[in-house]
Amino acid sequence: MKATGIVRRIDDLGRVVVPKEIRRTLRIREGDPLEIFTDKEGEIILKKYSPIGELSAFAKQYAESLSQMLGCLAGICDMDQVVAAAGNGKKELQDEDITRELGEFLKERKTQNAKAGEKRYVPVVSKTEPYSQEVISPILCAGDVIGAVLLLNMDQKDLFEEREICLAEYTAKVLGKQMEQ
């Protein structure tokens, strides 16, 4: 565990303020859920909760199925990082933080099919070059956006069409319903 040198007192209601610097570094925003753990030494551990992370094995299977069926790079992300990726280029995507632009786009709650160079193209993670085309479909759970299904294409010839958009939306709905149960 990393020491920060920051000390906070518990108030009369049992609350502790997580310092702004730590919230910014860990991308914790107002309203974000946190898991609370304790260990044998009496330490309290706060961890940012990812509902999609709970389904990481299930999400990985879905990403692999989409990738095999469509022949593209498929990914599933929560609101912070890519939790599952499959296909050519998955190592560049898996466990990477999503861009601020993608986080903002997901708040709009709409599916997008865009080509690289278009004004509406949204970079997914900062490490990768733009793909020739992307489909982004938000995952909704109980009315909240909790992540997205990503289809990314490097091939300029085989562009995504209605079939790929429908599959991304279907996968997003299935994952959202799975989280509600």
Automatic annotation (TrEMBL):
<keyword id="KW-0805">Transcription regulation</keyword>
<keyword id="KW-0010">Activator</keyword>
<dbReference type="InterPro" id="IPR052731">
    <property type="entry name" value="B_subtilis_Trans_State_Reg"/>
</dbReference>
<protein>
    <submittedName>
        <fullName>AbrB/MazE/SpoVT family DNA-binding domain-containing protein</fullName>
    </submittedName>
</protein>
<dbReference type="GO" id="GO:0003677">
    <property type="term" value="F:DNA binding"/>
</dbReference>
<dbReference type="GO" id="GO:0042802">
    <property type="term" value="F:identical protein binding"/>
</dbReference>
<keyword id="KW-0238">DNA-binding</keyword>
<dbReference type="Pfam" id="PF15714">
    <property type="entry name" value="SpoVT_C"/>
</dbReference>
<feature type="domain" description="SpoVT-AbrB">
    <location>
        <begin position="5"/>
        <end position="51"/>
    </location>
</feature>
<dbReference type="GO" id="GO:0030435">
    <property type="term" value="P:sporulation resulting in formation of a cellular spore"/>
</dbReference>
<dbReference type="InterPro" id="IPR029016">
    <property type="entry name" value="GAF-like_dom_sf"/>
</dbReference>
<keyword id="KW-0804">Transcription</keyword>
<dbReference type="InterPro" id="IPR037914">
    <property type="entry name" value="SpoVT-AbrB_sf"/>
</dbReference>
<keyword id="KW-0678">Repressor</keyword>
<dbReference type="Pfam" id="PF04014">
    <property type="entry name" value="MazE_antitoxin"/>
</dbReference>
<keyword id="KW-0749">Sporulation</keyword>
<dbReference type="InterPro" id="IPR007159">
    <property type="entry name" value="SpoVT-AbrB_dom"/>
</dbReference>
